[in-house]
Amino acid sequence: SSGINAEYGGICKIDGHIQKVGNFRIEPPGLFRGRGDHPKQGKIKRRVFPEEIIINIGKGEEVPSCPPGHKWKSVQHEYTTKDMFRNNFFADWRRFMTEEERQVIRKLELCDFSSMHQYFLDEAAKRKNRTKKKKKKK
Fold first, then answer.
1. Predicted local confidence at residue 18, as pLDDT
2. What is the residue-averaged pLDDT of the chain?
3. Residue 16 confidence (pLDDT) above 80
4. In whole angstroms, what separates CA 50 from the centre of its chain?
5. In a 3-state reduction of DSSP, which class is residue 31?
6. What backbone phi and psi angles, to 5 degrees, belong to 30?
7. Distance separating alpha carbons of residues 76 and 91, to the nearest angstrom
8. pLDDT above 60 (res 3)
């Protein structure tokens, strides 16, 4: 009834829970409309080809079929193990670290982020349970 066909995407499973994915389709080429006074308004959006798309899907899941005559750029099962993700993630977090923390944490693969993950889950639960008055205050 939500209009999302699970056969073609629109859902994902995170930590055993099924979640809707907000934007999983690629927009067709055409004029960019934007909202308000967007700097790219009126520019032409180019077509995106399968050779430019990276599919991130769980191991053992069926990979969506590619249009005839094309192939996906790559199919990944665990993007967090990729060097590019680790380097970008680590570089981003280093901006918020003290110099002492930077000396201690030098290799991302040696870090245990389970407590950080739990912290963000707890914060999300707190935000979800706020009253309407508190939500409006922000």
1. 81
2. 77
3. no
4. 18
5. strand
6. 160, -165
7. 22
8. no
| Structure token digits, residue 32 | 């960019």
Chain position carrying tokens 């380097």? 87
Cα–Cα distance for residue pair 74/51, rounded to 1 Å? 8
Gap between the Cα atoms of 90 and 61, Å rounded: 29
10 secondary structure, DSSP code: S
Q: Report how far residue 99's alpha carbon sits from residue 87's, in angstroms, rounded to the nearest whole number.
A: 18
Distance CA(138)–CA(125), nearest Å, equals 16
Q: To which H or E segment does residue 103 belong?
A: helix 99-104
Q: How far apart are CA 79 and CA 107, in angstroms?
A: 17
The C-alpha torsion from 50 through 55 and 59 to 65, rounded to 10°, is -30
The model's confidence at residue 1, banded by pLDDT at 50, 70 and 90, is: very low
For 66, the 3-state DSSP assignment is coil
Structure tokens at 96: 């918020």
Unique residue bearing structure tokens 């193990």: 81
Cβ–Cβ < 8 Å for 53, 62: no
> Contact 38/31 with Cβ under 8 angstroms?
no
Q: Is 46 helix (H, G, I), strand (E, B) or coil?
A: coil
